[in-house]
Design goal:
globular, alpha/beta, five-stranded parallel beta sheet
Length: 270
């Protein structure tokens, strides 16, 4: 599997990128598959790569998941990562900054959650929240927004220099599909706990969020840490797409098992 397969969904020419031009659904038969054998093979490959990452401890991987409410950040984590060993894998969800976090720079709370070598860490929301929401709400003036975007580019370049691969995925959902999913949460007592007043407030600001996402993604998609747009209206397609992208990314990392510390031929079981 190669990353070239994902080029149509990778932000490469920032000046030409238009989020509205990217469909929230995949072309027919492009990634999604109900073939159980192919799915098993895919997740076996993912598990093997994660085991190699954990054993080798020469690289780390940060997976950033961003998207509007109901785009499926929780669902991706639940469905894709259930297939791999929990050793060396963890997820962290970022909410609004606490009072203590507000007393520090906006990246302060991110550092302690980053992966070490041998780890894979999934960010459910991320450092991008401290650029996206303040832009939409008007809490940051444009010059400060641009400074934060520059800090993020430098921050992610630092991670890459230290051997941490950065894979950033925007889960691209349509407004119509979000309406269906919000209604489903309203109707299901088992899902109502997920709802917050801000979900409905943000929906009213949909055009502003789309403009802000477009600007932010384009400004921070670099050769080392690109953004990929994940069509997310169909949940199974979304999960399959991200699993294949993750496998291709890890294969590109050239991961290797460490050399054994002993010679197996010197030992015999009795």
């Amino acid at each position: 599997m190669t990353l070239k397969k994902f080029a149509p969904w990778k932000i490469q020419a920032a000046d030409k990128f238009r989020l509205a031009d990217v469909s929230t659904r995949l072309p027919k038969d492009s990634f999604a598959s109900d073939d159980s054998k192919k799915s098993k093979s895919l997740f076996e490959r993912l598990n093997k790569l994660q085991t190699t990452l954990y054993a080798g401890k020469s690289r780390g991987l940060l997976l950033v998941l961003q998207g509007m409410d109901t785009a499926g950040k929780d669902g991706v984590i639940r469905h894709v990562f259930t297939h791999i060993s929990p050793l060396g894998v963890r997820a962290h969800a970022f909410a609004a900054p606490s009072e203590e976090e507000k007393r520090h720079d906006f990246l302060w709370r991110i550092h302690s959650q980053l992966p070490g070598k041998g780890e894979m860490v999934i960010f459910n929301r991320s450092h991008y929240e401290d650029v996206l929401v303040p832009q939409v709400r008007g809490w940051l003036k444009p010059p400060m927004v641009e400074k934060r975007l520059a800090h993020i580019r430098n921050f992610e370049a630092l991670l890459m220099d230290e051997g941490i691969a950065v894979l950033k995925c925007y889960l691209h959902i349509s407004k119509a599909e979000q309406k269906k999913r919000l209604q489903a949460r309203l109707d299901d007592p088992q899902k109502q706990w997920k709802l917050q007043a801000s979900d409905f407030e943000d929906r009213k600001l949909w055009p502003a969020f789309m403009r802000t996402y477009q600007h932010t993604l384009a400004a921070t998609s670099t050769r080392e840490a690109p953004w990929y747009i994940i069509p997310a209206d169909d949940k199974s397609e979304r999960d399959r797409f991200l699993a294949e992208l993750l496998v291709a990314t890890m294969e590109d990392m050239n991961l290797k098992m460490p050399q054994p510390t002993l010679k197996p031929g010197n030992f015999k079981l009795v």
